[in-house]
Amino acid sequence: MTDSQRLAARVNEVSERELLERIFPRLAVLGSPILGPGDDAAVLAAPDGRVVVSTDTQTEGQDFRLTWPNGYRTAGADVGWKAAAQNLSDINAMGAVATGMVVSLTLPAETEVAWVEGLADGLVEAIVGLGAPGCTVAGGDLGLGGELSVTVTVLGSLEGRAPVLRSGARPGDVVAVAGKLGTAAAGLALLEHGPRYAGLGEEARGVIRAFCRPRPPLAAGPAAARAGATALMDLSDGLLKDGDRLGRASGVVLDLDPAVLAAHAALLAGPAAAVGAEPLRWVLGGGEDHGLLAAFPPSSHLPEGFTAIGSVVPPAGGPGGVAIGGRPAEPSGWDHFAR
Amino acid sequence: MTDSQRLAARVNEVSERELLERIFPRLAVLGSPILGPGDDAAVLAAPDGRVVVSTDTQTEGQDFRLTWPNGYRTAGADVGWKAAAQNLSDINAMGAVATGMVVSLTLPAETEVAWVEGLADGLVEAIVGLGAPGCTVAGGDLGLGGELSVTVTVLGSLEGRAPVLRSGARPGDVVAVAGKLGTAAAGLALLEHGPRYAGLGEEARGVIRAFCRPRPPLAAGPAAARAGATALMDLSDGLLKDGDRLGRASGVVLDLDPAVLAAHAALLAGPAAAVGAEPLRWVLGGGEDHGLLAAFPPSSHLPEGFTAIGSVVPPAGGPGGVAIGGRPAEPSGWDHFAR
């Protein structure tokens, strides 16, 4: 097969070995684990005798569309970036640093090899672009299936620290966030209901990029741990829903400041106007920005990347949860299994 | 919702939290990692400062059917068992011991909650039944999708030993196997082409069980490492194909003894007669038994569970591979991407 034929090839036109030989060299820029792809399993360093682990699947039709209603076509690199970013975010949310990932791909027979190569490039771009320099792609699995899906499992190191859980927030703590709020939801709304992608300006394209290639603040998780954060979690399902989880896990209420929420919403006025949406709903309920929600002890100096968004108050007899300006708020956001 | 309603429920009729609350208690029998499910990531011990990792996806329609042509209905517990067993086998094949796994499930909306509970039970049954006492289910991910798929990522400990790779076999070594050869392929043939399951006898049901619930010999991997095995791999794609991989990785030829192969084939005479198949083809080309293929130094005392099946010879100018009775053999077996 010549190189030009290969560029056009679909995955059922090449052997598994050929496909792997197209993928592995693209990952080599990341450096090497103790033992990389090619044997029955990989071996990674776990320098402090513990390993943090998280896994997440993205499925075509559920988590992304190959072609969106506004005409945007999802690149393989978008899917690879997002699969890596989501999982890197979970490691970040423990205050840990990623050490490596393994990737399992399920591919429809007609998937183009070039699209899969793009996916591998997207993994690398996210790892490099988001700042996870010690992270390698240590191995994976390839199989055919009716729908495209990508499962990434990422490992991380706590670097000798305790993991920062969801359960440690205490009344009097400062509630803070790092990263964007509602921007990915704005991007999703444009993809689903917005004007044609080809005619969009830079601001609109930017929020679409925030959905397709989220940017978890990977320096902020370890920084929060070093600064003594009492609780930390990934904002993947929306501020109110994730805030409710953190509040219940800690047995406290996170009381959010309406003025700060409004300031975040104001940043999304342009995209909101384009689709006739209320941007505060995106800030409160939009998922997949992969910022961090944290609690810090009273009068902490917040680490770089975090801004205060409220305070922790007692649960007032309930199980804990989230409030806005002192009023209990209904958690909303994503539930993959909601009716 | 009452308990009886819950038993009949489908996954889109319950919240993600309810579904997780039905699954987690079933996993608790396995003991606890440093940090288990419920936070952004789990934390497992990595006692020797390294961690072995492997990942594998099973997809409905590719790796299993919910209902087979012979009428056998795949239980959730079958899928859970096999997903765990396949991955435990990869850890075994490094000479390592499993310490934990994370599981990502993609479920069609109409999947019954009871089927998912069965899958969780199957994970536990495999971990306990195959003898992986230090292994926990540390976390996971749930999502909806058009087809059912299960990705397991398993972590393991080398217990201070070097990993046993595919690349260390040397001329003069003894080739040995642990576990079954061709039995899962016999089971697959009965599922696809055999008489109705309801009328089958115990021998036929046994080979179907070997396909649905493979039994990797988990004591044999670490035993091989302790005994000085020079090469070790999982037999997942068939003896000739996997043997060819090991031979090429080591730059040697694995010369298999035809009399031993015939003895393995004779064990499958009953199922072979039922579907008019040649059992030696199953022994040579059948995948998914998840036994081990190993090379040991000359005149080694083979560890328990291994039997000799041939010897390692020089590559005779070629890249290495596999032979039978001195004659080069064409590798066959599974290639998920073969035309």
Automatic annotation (TrEMBL), chains A, B:
<feature type="binding site">
    <location>
        <position position="55"/>
    </location>
    <ligand>
        <name>Mg(2+) 1</name>
    </ligand>
</feature>
<keyword id="KW-0547">Nucleotide-binding</keyword>
<keyword id="KW-0479">Metal-binding</keyword>
<feature type="binding site">
    <location>
        <position position="40"/>
    </location>
    <ligand>
        <name>Mg(2+) 4</name>
    </ligand>
</feature>
<feature type="binding site">
    <location>
        <position position="234"/>
    </location>
    <ligand>
        <name>Mg(2+) 3</name>
    </ligand>
</feature>
<feature type="binding site">
    <location>
        <position position="90"/>
    </location>
    <ligand>
        <name>Mg(2+) 3</name>
    </ligand>
</feature>
<dbReference type="InterPro" id="IPR036676">
    <property type="entry name" value="PurM-like_C_sf"/>
</dbReference>
<feature type="domain" description="PurM-like N-terminal">
    <location>
        <begin position="38"/>
        <end position="157"/>
    </location>
</feature>
<dbReference type="InterPro" id="IPR036921">
    <property type="entry name" value="PurM-like_N_sf"/>
</dbReference>
<feature type="binding site">
    <location>
        <begin position="140"/>
        <end position="141"/>
    </location>
    <ligand>
        <name>ATP</name>
    </ligand>
</feature>
<feature type="binding site">
    <location>
        <position position="141"/>
    </location>
    <ligand>
        <name>Mg(2+) 1</name>
    </ligand>
</feature>
<keyword id="KW-0460">Magnesium</keyword>
<feature type="binding site">
    <location>
        <position position="237"/>
    </location>
    <ligand>
        <name>Mg(2+) 5</name>
    </ligand>
</feature>
<feature type="binding site">
    <location>
        <position position="54"/>
    </location>
    <ligand>
        <name>Mg(2+) 4</name>
    </ligand>
</feature>
<protein>
    <recommendedName>
        <fullName>Thiamine-monophosphate kinase</fullName>
        <ecNumber>2.7.4.16</ecNumber>
    </recommendedName>
</protein>
<feature type="binding site">
    <location>
        <position position="334"/>
    </location>
    <ligand>
        <name>substrate</name>
    </ligand>
</feature>
<comment type="function">
    <text>Catalyzes the ATP-dependent phosphorylation of thiamine-monophosphate (TMP) to form thiamine-pyrophosphate (TPP), the active form of vitamin B1.</text>
</comment>
<keyword id="KW-0067">ATP-binding</keyword>
<dbReference type="GO" id="GO:0000287">
    <property type="term" value="F:magnesium ion binding"/>
</dbReference>
<dbReference type="GO" id="GO:0009228">
    <property type="term" value="P:thiamine biosynthetic process"/>
</dbReference>
<dbReference type="GO" id="GO:0009229">
    <property type="term" value="P:thiamine diphosphate biosynthetic process"/>
</dbReference>
<feature type="binding site">
    <location>
        <position position="63"/>
    </location>
    <ligand>
        <name>substrate</name>
    </ligand>
</feature>
<comment type="similarity">
    <text>Belongs to the thiamine-monophosphate kinase family.</text>
</comment>
<dbReference type="GO" id="GO:0005524">
    <property type="term" value="F:ATP binding"/>
</dbReference>
<keyword id="KW-0784">Thiamine biosynthesis</keyword>
<keyword id="KW-0808">Transferase</keyword>
<feature type="binding site">
    <location>
        <position position="166"/>
    </location>
    <ligand>
        <name>ATP</name>
    </ligand>
</feature>
<dbReference type="InterPro" id="IPR016188">
    <property type="entry name" value="PurM-like_N"/>
</dbReference>
<feature type="binding site">
    <location>
        <position position="90"/>
    </location>
    <ligand>
        <name>Mg(2+) 4</name>
    </ligand>
</feature>
<dbReference type="GO" id="GO:0009030">
    <property type="term" value="F:thiamine-phosphate kinase activity"/>
</dbReference>
<dbReference type="Pfam" id="PF00586">
    <property type="entry name" value="AIRS"/>
</dbReference>
<feature type="binding site">
    <location>
        <position position="56"/>
    </location>
    <ligand>
        <name>Mg(2+) 1</name>
    </ligand>
</feature>
<feature type="binding site">
    <location>
        <position position="236"/>
    </location>
    <ligand>
        <name>ATP</name>
    </ligand>
</feature>
<feature type="binding site">
    <location>
        <position position="40"/>
    </location>
    <ligand>
        <name>Mg(2+) 3</name>
    </ligand>
</feature>
<comment type="pathway">
    <text>Cofactor biosynthesis; thiamine diphosphate biosynthesis; thiamine diphosphate from thiamine phosphate: step 1/1.</text>
</comment>
<dbReference type="InterPro" id="IPR006283">
    <property type="entry name" value="ThiL-like"/>
</dbReference>
<feature type="binding site">
    <location>
        <position position="90"/>
    </location>
    <ligand>
        <name>Mg(2+) 2</name>
    </ligand>
</feature>
<feature type="binding site">
    <location>
        <position position="288"/>
    </location>
    <ligand>
        <name>substrate</name>
    </ligand>
</feature>
<keyword id="KW-0418">Kinase</keyword>
<feature type="binding site">
    <location>
        <position position="56"/>
    </location>
    <ligand>
        <name>Mg(2+) 2</name>
    </ligand>
</feature>
